[in-house]
L-ribulose-5-phosphate 4-epimerase (Nocardiopsis mangrovi), 227 residues
Amino acid sequence: MTALPPAAEHTRAEVCALHAELLRWNLVTWTSGNISARIPGTDLIAIKPSGVTYDDLTPESIVVCDLNGAVAEGRHAPSSDTDAHAYVYRAMPEVGGVVHTHSPYATAWAARNEPIPCAITAMADEFGDDIPVGPFALIGGDDIGKGIVATLSGHRSPAVLMSGHGVFTIGPDPKAAVKAAVMCEDVARTVHLARQNGPVERLPQHHIDALYDRYQNVYGQRRGTDS
Ligand SMILES: [Zn+2]
């Protein structure tokens, strides 16, 4: 094991703490779900260990890997989704955080292979479009990562519903990716509820464009800021 850069310990602590948000917002069950972050100034990422319960996560248990998913430091094996995370970091240099959940409402849309239509202003603000569906891919290797990158490259949405699987979100930092995962489940639930009593119509594109532009560029002065 080589010595880690000083930023690694800060990123490990941040990734560990952010996992509590997945529990707080009811996005995960048992050991499912994971968060990773790029360690600033390095070609390393910090990611949840595989099979460790949320109560047992500590900063030291967070595994440091290179951008090919090989372990650089850690007592545990990294998340079984590490290949997917690593692929995203390799392909999208602007990404600083990746989150994966099987949050129930969003995953129900993924099980139907149905994008979530951009039908409410909060969704236009945050996602700027429908939340798209990515291809079905088996775990292990680069297939999930390729599907995430192919779907989200050039797309406003920081969230993708991987067909028959669940949600992956990206952000400039891990907190932004967690926020996208929380908001994805929130809008998945709201649009689902709306459809129980009738059809749901997508907002007109010019309204989506105006809302997205205001929220991303004016509101709060920076992209992805909290309300
Ligand atoms: Zn999964």
In short: The first strand starts at residue 34 and ends at 38. The two ends are 42 Å apart (CA to CA).
